[in-house]
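stuck on whats below:

***
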Amino acid sequence: MTTETTTSPERAKAQEYLTTRAEAMTPQQIRARMRAAVVELDAAVDGVSQQASLQVVVPGQWTIAQVVDHVAQGTIRVADELRCLIEGRTPPAVPVYEGIVSGAAHRVPFGELLQGMRAANAEVDALLGRAIESEPPAGATARTILVFNRADGTEEFFDMHLTWKGYAMCQRLHLLDHRTQIKKLRDAQGRQG
């Protein structure tokens, strides 16, 4: 884990994407990119059985069920914060932290976890629809904790204050990161099985 004061290339790229590039996008473009990320995430979990969702592939790493639980739990919190930003308010709660889970991943059916993830993603989509209908007021930001994998294999944590556009695009990156994680877990399961 790295929390250096120097700016890594990965951090600089993320900062530019979540500020300059995100702010240049229209609400329609942001919603389209989020929808595409949701489709990719759904495709990654398509056909995962209850048994496969619980399989420990790498000791100490999350199972597919835990990843889906994390996405569901984090995304519903993201929806709460995004709602505030779209209404022109700073979210009152603490930021969404990287390890948020419910703890239910191994107690409830995988289908229920998927429903929770899909419902949370639908809530974010509905909020982005509101942003299209009426341009949100400028000025409100949310403190966001970002975690990026560096080229050297370490993780870098840093904070940013993001507008609703940057915040939505951060969630897009989050979904894509976990899509990749699930794909890797499924590939590893295929090699084990």
In short: The helical segments are 9-24, 27-45, 50-54, 64-86, 110-133, 164-192. The chain has one domain: 9-192. The chain has a mean pLDDT of 91. The first helix runs from residue 9 to 24.
